[in-house]
Amino acid sequence: MNPFSKVITLAGSNATNLVPVYTPGKVLWLAAHEITHLQGEGNYTYIYTRQGKRYIVSKTLKNVQEILCADLLRVHKSYVVNPEYIAARLDADMLLMSCGHKVPIARRRIREVQERISIGYLAVG
């Protein structure tokens, strides 16, 4: 049996929604539904998962968002969030994610974020 058959099967099933994360000794394939948010820093992107783990990949935020092809929301120059994991809206310019991280909203994107998120179920304040 090929030791890579599971990885090949996993990647082949829906490769457009998986991003490879290289960790010491192995490659993890993260699906879009496991990611709470992304934080970009230059040519690197931090990927935060629903399990509370943080991974780094050597791709820009835009590239990772394109690889995932998911319904992710760009809220800031350096942040992309998965709307499924937004716990609350703290202020007009701040989101609280289900993992406990606070994510800023750019002033010019506040209206767009309001339109994409159902304000009715998010607590303000």
Automatic annotation (TrEMBL):
Highest taxon of the lineage: Bacteria
Which Gene3D superfamilies does the record associate with it?
A: LytTr DNA-binding domain (2.40.50.1020)
Matching InterPro entries:
LytR-like, LytTR_DNA-bd_dom
Which Pfam family, any one of them, does this sequence belong to?
LytTR
Quote the SMART domains the UniProt record gives.
LytTR
Q: Which named protein is this?
A: LytTR family transcriptional regulator
Q: Which Gene Ontology terms cover its molecular function?
A: DNA binding; phosphorelay response regulator activity
Q: Which organism is it from?
A: Dyadobacter sediminis
> HTH LytTR-type domain location, by residue?
19-119
